């Protein structure tokens, strides 16, 4: 014990010397830290990346599978522009002319490679041995009413159009613009496409006010990510305001508030420098870093300032003296809490989702810098600024009473409280297991986001946004014309169409049937796949020869005609249903086709569906390591192995409680929430550290028994814990207003967890501390007679 | 000072009046190229097409092309596929027209029938390759409007804008070699949004009958999809002396065998 005590003393001495040094050289220290902050900030560069690919690590198997499919066919993204005419009828001359116009201008979208609309659909028809392949409606202005009626009938009968480009009633239609982004700089390419698309849509709406226009697709999704990053970054404004108000309320001192503001701003500037130096591009999850740093860093300053001002106001210490004393008392706790927070955030690197690596690293760096600035810039500034003495607050008597009462309440019934708490925690832990993963990326955005509203409309009125794709092979070059292959493919197409989740199926077997019919004079009985390989191959050759620019089959058939792409468009279903659907389809292929035709379902939807599971799996180790590291730090800090071990209970249970309550609130968790264990662990551990260290101090230095020590802990840190919890809650409450669910859900559950942590630290932790100390000497506790407040001030 | 500006202005007006406009110069070059290639009569050539995707996976097709030169209207051509096996014997017959859309027939040996394709679509990919049909068909002067861009030594760059509204291109930039019978060295294709789509490079040129330059290799690179297609021609045969009868629907069926 002696050696450790010595170590503790040496830390005290170090902190005192540090404080005296900083105060003595206040100007050089302040200037140096300004230089450091500005120097780092000058390296800062904030760029945004909205490409949905950023959510997947390079080794993500779903991404690899999807990339492989895109390499085989075409690698592309899309924009779906949906038009709903006010008259509820797409097929009028005026509306068709407008659609033709928009289709033509859609070809001018940057990086566009094809445009599919109802008007330019390549309709095949036959007249004897003459084969006609032409736009379904070309130069619509010249069409007669009868011709328009015919066009409508053809369109609504066309499997390739119905539920994809046109709805059953013919009242809503889509123009699908395929773009092939070079992928050199998605941070520039995506906005370029978006700006062009929005301009085109605006001009269209002005010229044709009879249409309501909705936009969705992968490019708008990317744009929504992009814009979510920017709006979440902007949350920092509100947070700054809250920091100023809270700090002022707690310190009642203008200069203290100003110094705090300088410290948090320096921390953020440094983090921005870190972003520039590491070349990180911001994404919605990582764009919340300023609010995070602000929330977490302000606690450091508040601890130091509150103690200092207390020493001045209550004990009448001089400014310098109070500052040194405050640094001496707070250096270690601030260091420990910063360290645990840094560890918590760094564990995000164990996950499989790069934006959270970035969030973890940026925040960890920011927190490390916040520690530095809190222990240099802050005391230097407070030494520079004058201290205006004001009236001493007189309400303190009541406050102390409240926390003392709470302490008495707990010490009276520790066993009962422990049992009740543990039962509640156990119940909530059970509920926590009922949460299911759901990463529907459309639902990442709330109703305030246009992308979400438009996608919902399209989902309800035309087609689905989610899909699963299969590359179905034949095993031989040119084998897609093998009748056996075509029949199996056709059967797979039919099977998919029979599934309740499926809105539309795009398969090559449909092309084969259609061409076969045209080759037989449009005889409907020939609307089946050809039964002769040469026939099929030659029909396909003929058909391909008659397709126009950008409407070819390259996106559906691979180069040597050995594989084709099957796309099943699905209605809005949850991630679990999506995975189950894909598994069912894969199983159907295994049971009904030969080996080369077996295939796995891939798509961006599938990638997101499995993201949460993947993140949870990979974060598991990280969480264990965080728990071990943080418990070790605690044992060292408290210099007590038993209490370090005991601390695991109040540190782990808040997360279980959080997810248990979440199960009652939403029941669905997303990828963003996977990280909260490590993250909140680093934050809530602070409460435990403060409470336990005061408890131990009372036992060791003041010789109190367990119950007295608990009351002492309540009286000394109760208020501080409530205060920091309030600051943290306000920060995460700000984040929970984000329109982006990865951030808002993460923030909401963090709010629950932090609240739960405080309650647990006030009820369960003291009860456990008392119960675990039972065997020790049974001094008759007379807490009422204690005046710890007086002792604390010495 | 003022005087000199006026003089300069006067000179420029005069020089403009006498000089050719870029449009006239471009048309002149296209006509010169057509003239230089006039009189070959008919030719026959075997060719191999190699399709390559981004990852270097390839796929091959072979075909025989016969061409009959016509001066009053566009040329007639007949393409017969030798491979892949499934389409062996399939043949297309095309009558190019100087004005209006071309006529095209296809013979399908599997059903032993000739089908006429009534389609204005000449901009789609030819048998899955990076060549559009319009890139391969006879280059009639009337199908474009022209604008001379610049001369780089013996190379003349001319912008050509397709007349057909259904073309897949807004323009092509064609590089002619003035010293080598106005043969084409390179064509750059710009898509509908005026972005560079493809580059076609001609190489391994050979002079036939001391007049007609024919390239043995065409390499088309698609810059947007990173796919490419190589056409490799074996020796041209100008001695076949084909007639209109060799470009009839009957001949089309025969060609397949």
TrEMBL record, chain A:
InterPro entries: MMPL_dom, Mycobact_MmpL, SSD
Keywords, in A-Z order: Cell membrane, Membrane, Transmembrane, Transmembrane helix
Keyword Repeat (UniProt): no
Record-linked PROSITE patterns: SSD
Entry annotated with the keyword Chaperone: no
Listed GO CC annotations: plasma membrane
Membrane topology (UniProt): Multi-pass membrane protein
Occurrences of domain SSD (ranges): 258-384
Transmembrane segments: 233-251, 258-280, 286-309, 329-350, 362-388, 417-437, 619-638, 645-665, 671-689, 710-733, 745-771
Location, primary (coarse class): membrane
Pfam families assigned to the protein according to its UniProt record, in alphabetical order: MMPL (PF03176)
Annotated compartments: Cell membrane
Protein name: RND family transporter
Organism: Ulvibacterium marinum
Lineage: Bacteria, Pseudomonadati, Bacteroidota, Flavobacteriia, Flavobacteriales
Automatic annotation (TrEMBL), chain B:
Domain Uncharacterized protein TP-0789: 74-254
Keyword Metal-binding: no
Keywords (A to Z) from UniProt: Lipoprotein, Signal
Matching Gene3D superfamilies: Lipoprotein localisation LolA/LolB/LppX (2.50.20.10)
Protein name in the entry: Outer membrane lipoprotein-sorting protein
Presence of keyword Ion transport: no
Annotated organism of origin: Ulvibacterium marinum
Signal peptide span: 1-19
